[in-house]
Amino acid sequence: MSSNNTPDINSDEPIPTEVTETNQSTLVVQAASFDPERFPDLDKMESVILKQGPRSIKQAKYTTIRDRHTEKVHHYSLSIQTFGLIQKQWKEKPEKSITLESEDDDEIQKLMDFLAATHGNTSSMPDGDYTILKVPTQDINLENINLESLQQLLSSLSISGRVDALVEILEFSENDTELFKVLVERVDKDPHLFADAAAALNLATYKNAVDKLKNLIDSGKVGESQFQKILEENPWMFGSEYSEILDRRKWTRDEQQDFVVRRTTDNYIEIIEIKTPLDGKVLFNYDKSHKSYYPGVELSKVIGQVQNYLEKLDKARDSILANDGEDTNKIRAKIIIGRDGDKDQQKALRRLNGHLYRIEIITFDQLLRIAQNVLNYLQGIFIPRN
Fold first, then answer.
1. Interior CA angle at 278 toward 277 and 283, to 5°?
2. Phi, psi of 118 (to 5 degrees)
3. 149 by DSSP, 3-state: which?
4. CA-to-CA dists, residue 217 to 20, 85, 223, 336, 360, angstroms
5. How is 322-357 classified by DSSP, letter by letter?
6. Which residues lie within the region annotated Disordered (predicted)?
7. Residue 49 contacts by C-beta under 8 Å, 6 or more apart in sequence?
8. Residue 173 is inside which H or E element, if any?
9. How far is CA 141 from the centre of its chain?
10. Which of 208, 323, 362, 372 has a 20 to 30 A CA-CA distance from 133?
11. Cα–Cα–Cα angle for 245, 250, 254, nearest 5°?
12. For residue 5, which phi and psi values (nearest 5 degrees)?
């Protein structure tokens, strides 16, 4: 389906039948539904021409993705495509096109929040980094709150409540310039007014991350990628044992590691292999004839995988040492897999770790305890002001 005025995109997708010239006061949106028999995962697509020139067209497409089993909306996809006129035909330029998804991190919402905060307002923004907050407001009526008692209010609220109150204050004062002016003057006289709220925001973020990790662990069959994602976003969960996470994760030709970190104590690097909690299955099997525990299939498999990788690193020691200054003989590995289990399972894991060379195994319960300890430390140094 195409015309002389339409980009020649895939013919099996519903697309606008013509390009309509627009001006600053009009925005023509063209909508088309998908055939459910041909496209069971697609519901509807709406498109608009953002810019049209004699040899270039820029088009935005907003597509609704549905679950073919429940027929409910699953997520949305936003594509901004650029087309060029090549030999009298419109052809997409992939290098100048981009697609955003609302699934997981919701890239579409982040872009909308960014534009809402910055479009037309950049001149009022200070240089440097600043944070755009979107927190659900609570039932806090600030219209009748005396600003002199604001500090007492924040001190009396819970950690999460302080964040909500701060956001409510800023949202309310945004439409009242006089109130905002008084608020700024009040903070200038007492800089500690929002210090607790700022610390509370960090604590709330850390606490949410710990809660999310716990939910993932308890949820059962969750893929490795979800654990990798939350740890990439929150590397502090590994604890103070490591000083940084390295961007480089590939040290041999065919192998890429989940995480490569630098140890705080000796500055050597360590690889971390992330598996899953194994849906609660035990790490060790019991041998009745010898009355002893031995690693199960999943644990044995990942140990062999990591041992093989360390061996490859050792073989490439000279080149890595010359090119990167890292001594592979000093590289250790950590495996995160499974759950604690009962006392016998925990004892078997301690025994195995005692006999492994350059490899340590921890469970997801142990990882959660490390993250919780970091959170507890931060909560311990955060003392609400009276």
1. 95
2. -110, -30
3. helix
4. 52, 52, 10, 12, 20
5. HHH---GGG-EEEEE-S---SHHHHHHHHHHHHH-S
6. 1-23
7. 16, 19, 20, 22, 28, 57, 58, 59
8. helix 159-174
9. 33
10. 372
11. 155
12. -105, 10
User: Helices 195-218 and 224-233 meet at what angle, rounded to 10?
Assistant: 170
Coil, strand, or helix at residue 63?
A: strand
Q: Are 336 and 364 in contact (CB under 8 A)?
A: yes
Q: What is the pTM of this model?
A: 0.51
- Closest among 46, 60, 55, 117 to 90, alpha carbons compared: 55
CA angle 170, 379, 237 (to 5 degrees): 100
Could you count the other beta carbons within 10 Å of the beta carbon of residue 168? Answer: 18
Find out whether 6 and 15 touch, Cβ atoms under 8 Å.
yes
Per-position pLDDT tens, the chain of length 386: 333 333 333 334 444 434 444 444 567 888 888 888 888 888 889 988 888 888 888 898 999 988 878 878 888 888 888 888 887 788 888 888 888 888 777 888 888 877 877 776 655 555 666 556 554 444 445 455 555 555 555 555 554 555 555 666 666 655 666 666 666 666 666 656 555 555 555 677 888 899 999 999 998 778 899 999 998 888 888 888 887 777 765 666 566 677 888 888 888 888 899 999 999 899 999 999 999 999 999 999 999 999 988 888 888 888 878 777 778 778 899 999 999 999 999 999 999 999 999 999 999 999 999 999 888 877 775 544 44
Please name which of 107, 104, 136, 323 lies closest in space to residue 212, comparing C-alpha atoms.
104
Distance, in Å, from the CA atom of 270 to the CA atom of 330, rounded to the nearest integer, reads 9
DSSP 104: T
- Angle between helix axes 177-189 and 159-174 (nearest 10 degrees) is 130
Q: How far apart are CA 367 and CA 336, in angstroms?
A: 8
Residue 215 burial (10 A CB sphere; 0-12, 13-18, 19+)? exposed
Q: State which fold the 219-373 domain adopts.
A: Trna Endonuclease; Chain: A, domain 1 (3.40.1350)
List the chain domain ranges. 1-121, 219-373
